[in-house]
């Protein structure tokens, strides 16, 4: 049992019962929608980034692992760095055209390019 497991105990401080099993909170990851049902938006963002452009992919519905896997594929395809968190994929630079082209080729038919 690691440190992460201890933080998920629900309400039990201490138990004298040697057979007691701690109840852990379950992280309910949303079921990942198939690519054709995803409604992804690809846009450029310059806010709070000291003037640097980033490409945002928003609207992903699914688990964090699937989001990170898609982010890794996009970073490899575009040859840039980036991250995936809070349901968004952030790629360095203006890579909107490449991202939309890749997503459509992979079956994400609900993908749209937004912004100037």
Keywords:
alpha+beta, Translation Initiation Factor Eif1, 5-stranded mixed sheet
Describe the structure.
With 116 residues, the chain is α+β, with helices and mostly antiparallel strands. The chain has one domain: 2-Layer Sandwich (Translation Initiation Factor Eif1), CATH 3.30.780.10. Helix content is 26%, strand content 18%. The protein contains 3 helices and 5 strands; from the N terminus they run H-E-E-H-E-E-H-E. The longest helix has 15 residues, at 64-78.
User: Can you tell me the CATH superfamily?
Assistant: SUI1-like domain
CATH architecture type: 2-Layer Sandwich
Write down the domain tally. Answer: 1
CATH topology: Translation Initiation Factor Eif1
* Mean pLDDT rating: 81
| Uncertain regions spanning at least 5 consecutive residues | none
Strand content: 15-25%
Q: Portion of residues in helices?
A: 25-40%
Q: In this structure, how is the largest beta sheet organized?
A: 5 strands, mixed
Give the topology, please.
Blueprint: H1 3-7, E1 41-45, E2 54-58, H2 64-78, E3 82-85, E4 88-92, H3 96-105, E5 112-113
Question: In brief, what are we looking at here?
Answer:
With 116 residues, this protein is of the alpha+beta class.
């Amino acid at each position: 049992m690691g440190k992460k497991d201890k933080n998920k105990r629900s309400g039990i401080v201490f138990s004298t019962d040697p057979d007691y099993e701690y109840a852990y909170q379950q992280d309910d990851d949303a079921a990942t929608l198939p690519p054709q049902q995803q409604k992804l938006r690809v846009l450029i963002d310059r806010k709070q980034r000291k003037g640097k452009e980033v490409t945002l992919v928003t609207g992903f519905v699914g688990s964090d692992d699937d989001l990170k896997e898609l982010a890794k594929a996009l970073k490899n395809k575009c040859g840039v760095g980036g991250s995936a968190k809070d349901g968004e994929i952030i790629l360095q630079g203006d890579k909107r055209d490449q991202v939309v082209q890749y997503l459509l080729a992979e079956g994400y038919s609900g993908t749209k390019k937004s912004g100037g």
